[in-house]
Amino acid sequence: MNREQYEDYARKFNARDYDGVFDFYDENPELSFFGIEIRTRKELTDFYSFLHTYVKETIRIEKFASSDELAAVEGIIRVEGIKDLDAATLEANGMGAFFPIRKGEVQEMRQYIHYHLHNGKIKSVGCAIVPS
Q1: Which of 53, 75, 55 is nearest to 64 (CA)?
Q2: How far is CA 97 from the centre of its chain?
Q3: Distance (Å, rounded) from C-alpha 86 to C-alpha 77?
Q4: In sequence order, what are the beta bridge partners of 31?
Q5: Which CATH class is domain 3-131?
């Protein structure tokens, strides 16, 4: 995955094109983050369809590096509440590690993301968030 391909991935993510996003993933991806496990196109679509009912989430790429096995991104994840999302709703949907957010509130986090690649596709993802 090169920078241009990743920028296409980010554009599709920012546009909520979940099928287009999943096309960048290996046939059997292993996504695990903040207590969420995603292994299929449907699980990715279900997760983000729910989350994006409450927030507008965008990726802003600041730094990018890649090899045949890894794409590493440093960027800002901006989350803007479009509908109140409280802790109880998050917990009920298996997202207890996520932060509640109110409509109109904005959270920006610096995120370091490692995409582990297999045959040019994303096999797994690891990330760390640092408040900015």
Answers
A1: 75
A2: 14
A3: 20
A4: 38, 125
A5: alpha beta
